[in-house]
UniProtKB/TrEMBL annotation:
Pfam families xref list: Oxidored_FMN
Name of the protein this chain belongs to: N-ethylmaleimide reductase
Domain of life: Bacteria
GO molecular function, one term: FMN binding
Phylogenetic placement of the source organism: Bacteria, Bacillati, Actinomycetota, Actinomycetes, Pseudonocardiales
Domain NADH:flavin oxidoreductase/NADH oxidase N-terminal: 7-325
C-alpha cells in the first residue's frame, strides 16, 4: 500500500510516503540556501514533501536560522528550492508556522505574541543560546484577524515561490495550537473560553489560506492531546470533533499520533478528505518503520508521514521498496551544522 499512487487535490502522488516537516535551522537572513535546494531535491521521490516550518510574517519567527516566505527576497530564494524539487520529479508544500508565544525578542527584534499573556513553561532557541520563553503580548481582536490573514498572504507568496500548496502548522505548541489550548488561551471573548471560541482562530487561518490559493492546495497539521511546549487541551475529543466539522474541506489533515488509536480512528472517520498520519507522534528515539505505515494505511489513513527516517535516508522510498536498512542520525547534526544535512548518500549496493 505505501508504494501505491494516490490523488491528493490536484496532484497525483507516486507513493503514499510524505516527508514530514522538520526544523533544520540552516537559513541565512531568513532565506533558504543552495544547500536547502539540494536537501529537498535529494528527497524528491517522496510522494509529497512538506518543508520545515516557514514563518508567515516577521513576528511569527519562532527561532534563529528559520526561513520565512513573506518578502520578495524570500520568495525568490524558495523558487530555487521548488525548481530543484520539481526538476527531480517531486511535489512540495510549504509548512506555514507562526511561533506565537514560542519566540524571543532576540530572534528577529519582535516581542512574541499569543492569545493570552501567559508564558510557556519551556525554553526557546535564541541567537545567544537557549532561554526561558518570555511572556507574550496578548493579541487584540483586530490583531488576531491580522495574524489569521497572514497565513493567507503567506500562502499566496508560497505559490508565487513555486510551491504546490501549503500546510498550516496547527500542532506542537505554536500559535494555532495555542489558541486551541486551554492553558495558553485564557481569553473570555470570541476567541477563547468555549470550544467554539478556541477553534475560531484555526478555522479563520485556514479560511484565509483557502481564499488565497484554493482548498485543494491547503492542509493543516494537528497534534490532538499533544503537550509539546506546555500545551494542555481540555475536552480534547470534543475540541477536535468540533474543529474538523468547522474546517472547510481542504486537501488534507496531517495528524501526529499524540492520542490513542481510538481517538485517531475517530478523527479519520470524521474527516472527508485525505488523512495523513505520522505514526511517530512527538519526537521519539527511533525512525518510523514501513510496518507502522502499513498498519495505519490498513486502519484507514491515506498517506503516512516520516520525519526522522528522512534525515539520513534521502532514498527512503527505495529503501522501503527493497527492504534495505535505514541510517540513523546524530541529534547533534539536526540543526545548524554543516554536517548531517546534504551528506547522507543513497544506499550503496
Amino acid at each position: 500500500m505505501l508504494l501505491t499512487s494516490y490523488r491528493l487535490g490536484n496532484l497525483t502522488l507516486p507513493n503514499r510516503l510524505v516527508m514530514a516537516p522538520m526544523t533544520r535551522a540552516r537559513a541565512v537572513d531568513g532565506k533558504p540556501t543552495a544547500a536547502t535546494a539540494t536537501y529537498y531535491a535529494q528527497r524528491a521521490t517522496a510522494g509529497l514533501i512538506v518543508t520545515e516550518g516557514v514563518h508567515p510574517n516577521a513576528v511569527g519567527q519562532a527561532g534563529p536560522f528559520m526561513p520565512g516566505v513573506h518578502t520578495g527576497d524570500q520568495v525568490e530564494a524558495w523558487r530555487v528550492v521548488t525548481d530543484a524539487v520539481h526538476a527531480n520529479g517531486g511535489r512540495i508544500f510549504a509548512q506555514l508556522m507562526h511561533g506565537g508565544r514560542i519566540g524571543h525578542p532576540e530572534v528577529a527584534g519582535h516581542h512574541p505574541v499569543g492569545p493570552s499573556a501567559i508564558a510557556a513553561a519551556s525554553e526557546v532557541f535564541t541567537p545567544t543560546g537557549i532561554k526561558p520563553a518570555p511572556v507574550p503580548r496578548e493579541l487584540t481582536i483586530p490583531e488576531i484577524r491580522n495574524q489569521a490573514q497572514a497565513f493567507g498572504d503567506a500562502a499566496r507568496c508560497a505559490l508565487d515561490a513555486g510551491f504546490d500548496g501549503v500546510e498550516l502548522h496547527g500542532a506542537n505548541g505554536y500559535l494555532i495550537q495555542q489558541f486551541l489550548s486551554s492553558n495558553a488561551n485564557r481569553r473570555a471573548d470570541g476567541y477563547g473560553g468555549s470550544i467554539t471560541g478556541r477553534i475560531r482562530f484555526a478555522v479563520e487561518a485556514v479560511e484565509a489560506a483557502v481564499d488565497a490559493i484554493g482548498a485543494d492546495r491547503v492542509g493543516i497539521r494537528l497534534s490532538p492531546g499533544g503537550e509539546v511546549q506546555d500545551i494542555v487541551e481540555e475536552n480534547m475529543r470534543a475540541l477536535y470533533d468540533a474543529l474538523l466539522k468547522a474546517l472547510p474541506d481542504i486537501a488534507y489533515i496531517h495528524v501526529l499520533a499524540t492520542a490513542d488509536d481510538e481517538v485517531l480512528m475517530g478523527l479519520r472517520k470524521a474527516w472527508p478528505t485525505a488523512f495523513i498520519l505520522n505514526p511517530g507522534g512527538q519526537i521519539g528515539p527511533h525512525e518510523g518503520t514501513r510496518e507502522q505505515g502499513e498498519r495505519w494505511l490498513a486502519n484507514g489513513a491515506d498517506l503516512i508521514s516520516y520525519g526522522r527516517a528522512y534525515l539520513g535516508n534521502p532514498d527512503l522510498v527505495e529503501r522501503f521498496r527493497l527492504g534495505l536498512p535505514l541510517v540513523s542520525t546524530d541529534r547533534e547534526t539536526w540543526f545548524q551544522t554543516e554536517a548531517g544535512y546534504i551528506d547522507h548518500p543513497s544506499y550503496q549496493h
